[in-house]
Design brief:
The protein is α/β, with parallel strands linked by helices. It contains 17 helices and 8 strands. An 8-stranded parallel sheet has the order 1-2-3-4-5-6-7-8. Strand 3, helix 8 and strand 4 form a beta-alpha-beta unit. The structure holds zinc ion (ZN). Zinc ion (ZN) binds next to loops.
């Protein structure tokens, strides 16, 4: 099974660029940008990546991401991330970037996006990558609105959507209504972290008030039967991150994670890493854990990859092309590993309609 999962072409939708910086790269960035801290070793960074609560996690993340200061840093960490995607046979990825941080350093949005896009372009079509502009809750609703407006004015095709992340307790989804309404009116895709540390009401608000098309995490949806039914009926994808939820104590352990129940009830669940370097996890690991804990076979894992394609922020034409590529490549991997490939996975549906 391990070999099969490694070989299986995969896709990912919930991945933060700043959470994918490898310890040795963090050390390089510190030496280059903050030489006064250059005594920090890769082992020290790894210690920062070990935490027992959310506050320590945020502190560790900030110590590392605070060293991403120049456009060439963004370019290099994007190259590093996508090199890792190639190694894991990830063919499609949507990752996000906390763009506001770099705007605050004085760079233009066009230059920030270009530094990331130029790195991503080196990997296409091996890995098809798209960017989501991350609206950090603690930057507040006003900055989120201005940034969304800038994204729309730039109109770069590499940027497929906006995403909301950060402290769900202090900044509920409804505070960001205006930014999401603006994106919605312009048909820019929208995703939001919700139902990670706050209950199902946060997911309902992200759907009903923000018009989010996807929910990042959505783990606490399990506590509301009506919500689970709604997610199934309306094909709302959840970008689930098993290890992240365990390490941040959203659930007690993998066995308590509702992923298996969501999958069996027909929720469009996907598997993702969130902050792979911080949580010490790869997408391949996440599939291995899911197969083991939730007793999933090759056909289920293939379906979860196809769910990811279904949930991607691409137009119908691109989605059908992606789907064909994955279907064909999956059939080959099934054959080479001695599994029967049943062509029963759900087909891509039409692109999501505008929220009204
Ligand atoms: Zn996340």
């Amino acid at each position: 099974m391990k070999n099969f999962i490694q070989l299986l072409p995969k896709a990912e939708l919930h991945l933060h660029l700043e959470g994918s910086v490898q310890p040795h790269t963090a050390v390089k960035l510190i030496k280059r940008n903050h030489p006064e801290n250059s005594r920090l070793s890769a082992e020290d960074i790894q210690k920062l990546y070990r935490f027992s609560n959310l506050a320590e996690f945020i502190r560790g993340m900030r110590r590392v991401s605070g060293n991403i200061c120049f456009l060439k840093d963004l370019h290099e960490i994007t190259q590093e991330l996508l090199t890792d995607m190639v190694r894991q046979n990830v063919r499609y990825v949507e990752f996000d970037c906390a763009v506001q941080k770099y705007l605050d350093l004085g760079y233009s949005l066009a230059d920030i996006i270009d530094s990331i896009y130029s790195a991503a372009a080196e990997f296409m079509p091996m890995v098809e990558a798209r960017l989501i502009v991350n609206l950090l809750r603690d930057h507040g609703p006003e900055k989120a609105l201005k940034l969304t407006d800038k994204v729309l004015n730039l109109g770069h095709p590499f940027v497929v959507g906006i995403g909301l992340s950060g402290d769900e307790n202090r900044y509920p989804p409804e505070d960001f209504y205006q930014a999401f309404q603006l994106a919605n009116d312009a048909l820019l895709h929208r995703t939001a972290h919700a139902g990670e540390v706050v209950g199902p009401e946060s997911v309902w608000n992200a759907l009903n008030i923000l018009g989010a098309e996807r929910i990042d995490h959505g783990t606490t949806s399990i506590n509301d039967d009506k919500l689970v039914d709604y997610l199934v009926t309306n094909h709302i994808p959840l970008t689930q991150c098993l290890t992240s939820n365990v390490k941040l104590s959203v659930v007690k352990d993998y066995f308590q994670h509702p992923f298996g129940i969501f999958y069996k009830r027909g929720v469009l669940v996907t598997l993702n890493t969130d902050d792979p370097q911080v949580f010490g996890v790869t997408l391949t690991d996440e599939y291995l854990v899911a197969a083991d804990v939730f007793q999933l076979g090759p056909g289920d894992l293939s379906q979860i990859v196809m769910n990811t394609v279904l949930a991607a922020f691409v137009n119908d034409h691109e989605k059908i092309k992606l789907e064909e590529r994955f279907r064909q490549e999956h059939a080959n991997v099934f054959q080479s590993c001695g599994y029967e490939f049943l062509n029963t996975v759900k087909k891509a549906t039409l692109e999501k309609k505008r929220f009204v």
